Amino acid sequence: MALMDFNYSCICFQRSEKWSREQVDHLKRQVHCKLLKATSMAYTVMLVDVLERLHIDDHFRDEITTALQHVLLHHEEQNSVVTVDQLHLESLRFRLLRQHGFWVSADVFDKFKDNTGCFKESLSTDARGLLSLYNAAHLAMPGETALDNAIAFSRRSLQSLQGKLRSPMAEQVSRALDIPLPRTPKLLETMRYITEYEQEEAHDSVVLDLARLDFELIRSLYLKELKTLSL
Predict the structure, then answer these.
(1) pTM, two decimal places
(2) How many domains does the chain divide into?
(3) Which stretches make up the Terpene synthase N-terminal domain (predicted)?
(4) SS3 track for 33-102
């Protein structure tokens, strides 16, 4: 970026920084209410996942911990029959709880296996579920063979789907096969996911607006520091 462009960007941002911070505070209050009012396991884990991938979860640490404790203690009973999105939601729940230090047994994935103990082949076309399972299984502890098998199954199935997926799922699968989500630098994931989240039909505009403004504030801080170091 040319110095003139950089200076112009800084001046424009300084004029709007106060407004941006006020908007961030306003949006944070709305998201806070969403977390407090979340009652279902599905809504809670999807919301927490989005907040973390958009790198705005630091604003809601206590609320997220409370929400996940509720998810852990009041896990909704699932039918033995695998339904749409069940693999995705169970995998999200498993990954988020383990990432936050809550113990969850890998047995929760038994319902997705056949009589031979292998994952059901009917799941091999469920791209979102497979991606969530793949990322979740990378939270395995040493010796958890069941999760090693989950990685192998989901990876093989996702590779077979490559070339058939639409954006942004195609990009997310490609990234995960290279570096699983739990091992991806958080800010790098945020830079990519802000644009991808907007493409999701069920995206939350309040959460998206908060992520954009928060990211701009963080980027401005980095630019100011860079300018100081370059003088």
Answers:
(1) 0.86
(2) 2
(3) 15-177
(4) HHHHHCCCHHHHHHHHHHHHHCCCHHHHHHHHHHHHHHHHHCCCCCCCCCCCCHHHHHHHHHHHHHHCCC
